[in-house]
Amino acid sequence: VTPLLDLETVPDEVREMASSLGINLEALNTPVSIDEVREMAEYLGIDAMREGYLLPLVKMALQAPLPKGWEVYKDDKGDPFYSHHKSGRTSYRHPADEYFMNRVLEDRTRHIKAVQEGSAVKASEPWLDFVDESNDRYW
Question: DSSP label at 135?
């Protein structure tokens, strides 16, 4: 399978984010589907058609593995939940969700400011790179 992410070209900002969450960058090469992107965009409060500039962040949120110290379990109903044994914290939300929700707000604010200053275009196309089962890329 062709990697979705060239690890040699990963921006420092992404490396820092991954490091702070205890994420191995190799995990960001996990393929995701269009439906998964749509669902995660909605969950993060992103209008995928109008905020295409946020879609790479959506893809990263989908590919984020559990940070160090976290484990996933299933409750009596079969729903997944997350547990951090050292702190005793449990959650039905992925431990990295809060980080990505905050990043959406930050990136959206930065984009709006850039549009107002004329350094970014208002509209952005919702394009993302995907790989199908045959290892063919599509956008």
Answer: S
